Amino acid sequence: SQIYVACRNGRVDQALSLGFLLCWIAGDLTNFIGCYLTNQLPIQIVTAIFYVNMDIIMISQFVYYKLKNQKMTKCKVFQ
Predict the structure, then answer these.
(1) Measured in Å, how far apart are the chain's first and last C-alpha atoms?
(2) Which residues cross the membrane (predicted)?
């Protein structure tokens, strides 16, 4: 739901920090690695992969809107 709301208002770069997102993906990556190395149930591995993919989408969204908002700010300054 957060991904959808961020797409609607275009302000994900103001709601979350990049450091927070990087810590979040680091935790989910270590969860996935732990699941894989300890031969957890397939559903646990699939869930870990799902969370990593959602993190990648959120980081991509953050970068996209950060660049888009910076570009819009620069355009407003030069007008």
Answers:
(1) 36
(2) 18-39, 45-65
